[in-house]
Amino acid sequence: MRNNIAIRLLICLLITVGIFCIPQTCPMHVSAAEEVDVDRHLTGDREDSTNIDDPGTADSPEDLADLNIANTVTITYDNGNGQINGALRILIILTLIAIAPSLIVMLTCFTRVIVVLHFTRMALNTQTAPPNNVLIGIALFLTFFIMQPTIMSVYNDAVVPFEAGELDTQEAVTAAMKPIREFMYPLTQEKDVATFMEISRTEWDGTLDSIPNLVLIPSFIVSELRSAFIIGFLIYIPFIVIDMVVASTLMSMGMMMLPPTTISAPFKILLFVMADGWNLVIVNLVKTYF
Predict the structure, then answer these.
(1) Is position 177 within any domain?
(2) Could you write out the DSSP letters of every residue in 150-214?
(3) What is the pTM of this model?
């Protein structure tokens, strides 16, 4: 046992002596591959400082709260002539997808179409037939059909020149909004525009160019809702007549405990099918935009 301990102590002693002797017997020389410029700025090679004001020049707490950095970020591609970088294109597409539902509801005919289809289902008293998914799908495809000329104008006047580098971002947005504004303006009632212009305390000379987007868009939405409710009321009229006739017949027969809607529902569906109601509603709804 003692021999083992002695051997271990001897090994440790030899290792310690070797550690101290290696630097003296085998000196190592370390040299840098290139000299380091100690005067080089950490933020780049330019001699200009990125600070707006020199340190210690603040006179008030507000000055201390302000960001004292002049760095800015600028995104360019091929000196303004070329294709957008793939990552940036994906970012733009994802942003558009995120706000697409709001744009479809506010800037297109989707609101009028979906409200009219909903009134049609309520007038038929069929509860969930057609279901909501079917109504939304029909409204979306009708919206794309109606908005096709406007969408093509936006693509040709804004998207293509922007990708070709002929327009910057602000000019592209302005060019894209022009066809949409020309679509909304004829469908917007003047009293709605005048109301919102008065609320915003903005003078209006009666032309489209003097209406800002923040006024034209809510005016268009209000006008679309008004038109949709008028069309829905007109759709309701024949079905109300059927309900009144059925209710009067049941009252005269003494069947007061029988709900009139139970009897009138088949007659409504029969009348709607015989008159080819879906064709009448959808075709005449689309014609209101042409």
Answers:
(1) yes
(2) HHHHHIIIIIHHHHTTSS-HHHHHHHHHHHHHHHHGGGS-HHHHHHHHHHTT----SSSTTS-HH
(3) 0.64
Domain span holding position 228: 85-232
Domain contains 105? yes
Q: 170 in a domain, yes or no?
A: yes
Does residue 151 fall inside a structural domain? yes
Q: Which letter does DSSP use for residue 43 in this model?
A: T
Q: pLDDT tens, position by position, for the chain (290 residues)?
A: 555 555 665 565 555 545 445 444 444 443 444 444 444 444 445 555 566 666 667 677 666 666 666 555 555 545 555 555 567 778 777 877 888 788 778 888 899 999 999 999 988 888 788 888 999 999 999 999 999 999 999 888 888 888 777 877 788 888 888 899 889 989 888 888 888 888 888 788 777 878 888 888 999 999 999 999 999 999 988 888 888 888 888 788 777 777 777 778 888 888 888 888 899 999 999 998 88
Alpha helix (H) residue ranges in 40-85 = 61-65
Rg of the chain on CA atoms, in Å? 38
> What are residue 232's phi and psi, to 5 degrees?
-60, -40
Is residue 247 helix, strand or coil? helix
Q: Contact at 8 Å (CB) between 52 and 68?
A: yes
Residue that has been written with the tokens 């760095």 in this structure? 71
Beta carbons of 260 and 250 less than 8 angstroms apart: yes
Q: How far apart are CA 111 and CA 146, in angstroms?
A: 13
The total domain count for the chain is 1
